[in-house]
Write a structure and sequence with these properties.
By secondary structure, the chain is an alpha/beta fold. The protein has 2 domains: about 5-200, HUPs (Rossmann fold, 3-Layer(aba) Sandwich), CATH 3.40.50.620; about 250-290. The chain is about 55% helix and about 10% strand. It is built from 9 helices and 6 strands. A 6-stranded parallel β-sheet has the order 3-2-1-4-5-6. Helix 4 runs parallel beside helix 6. The protein is elongated and about 150 Å long. The chain starts with 5 loop residues before the first helix and ends with a helix. The relative contact order is 0.10.
Length: about 290
């Protein structure tokens, strides 16, 4: 087998840690990383009194489809750009056997740093579905858990199997600052300003943006025949209007000519009557002259 590139070896190594340090572990595929990941990390640093937060970028999520999942190195580089904080460190560490399961990774980290006080950080949406995780009850026994609130998941998380199973080990949020020092199982819910950002929503928006440019060239050829048909249909009514408009003109011309003929007939009749009256008058004059 070829040796792995140096950049890959560094990216999957665990950051340095000293005994008694309090470190929060935030795992996920980070596809893609976003501002909400940074926000909950800063909240955990402050509210839980942590020294560091490590982002554990997993090779893949066993419960999600891996089609279209970017390369691990690309996601690690993107996560570092989003983190931008000296107390937030990013790693692709996934255990000695490169396991995809959280329980295996947490065990490997505890073996590597037995004197460090770790806290597993997870969103309320993950607590709602934690019963689907491999050895999820073991995760509660490995280290304390801080559940960070997510929009729409507060009630579902508190009613989940995990919350019900370990209800007796729930720690009030007012005591969350000492959570890292408690023996597991111990867990609490941390409320904070909620963000609507999610990797799933960001991927959906990115997919729609990529589809729109490709659909424009296909629609242009289909519009040209429609435009021609519309233009032809628009011309046809105009021609009909011309023919219908010209018909009244011809009827008006006939109506005008008819009175002219009648007036001519009337004038000729008047002239004939006048001639006849002149003749009669002339005959009368002749008779009167003859009688004289």
């Amino acid at each position: 087998m070829k040796p792995a590139p140096k950049t890959e070896r560094k990216s999957v190594q665990l950051p340095l840690a000293a005994p008694r340090m309090r470190i929060g572990l935030l795992g996920g595929s980070f596809n893609p990383p976003h501002a909400a990941h940074r926000q909950i990390s800063l909240t955990a640093l402050k509210r839980l009194g942590l020294d560091r937060v490590w982002w554990l970028v997993s090779p893949a999520n066993p419960l999600k489809d891996t089609i279209g999942l970017p390369d691990l190195e690309k996601r690690i580089a993107a996560a570092k750009q989003v983190a931008r904080h000296p107390r937030i460190e990013v790693t692709g560490f996934s255990g000695n056997g490169k396991s995809l399961y959280t329980v295996d990774v947490l065990r490997a980290i505890k073996r590597r740093y037995p004197g460090v006080q770790f806290v597993w950080l997870m969103g309320a949406d993950n607590l709602a579905d934690i019963h689907r995780w491999r050895a999820w009850q073991t995760i509660f026994s490995l280290m304390p858990i801080a559940v960070l609130d997510r929009p729409g998941y507060r009630l579902r998380a508190r009613a989940s199997q995990g919350a019900q199973r370990f209800a007796d080990f729930h720690v009030d949020e007012s005591d969350a600052r000492g959570l890292a020092q408690l023996e597991p199982p111990a867990w609490t819910v941390v409320t904070h300003p909620l963000s609507g950002l999610s990797s799933t929503a960001i991927r959906a928006k990115t997919d729609t943006k990529q589809v729109k440019p490709n659909s424009k060239p296909k629609s242009k050829p289909a519009q040209k025949p429609k435009q021609k048909a519309k233009a032809a249909a628009a011309k046809k009514p105009k021609q009909k209007q011309k023919t219908t408009a010209s018909a009244p003109k011809r009827s008006k011309a006939k109506a005008v000519k008819a009175p002219i003929k009648r007036t001519k007939q009337k004038t000729s009749a008047k002239k004939a009557a006048r001639k006849a009256s002149h003749r009669i008058a002339g005959g009368r004059k002749a008779l009167s002259a003859a009688s004289y």
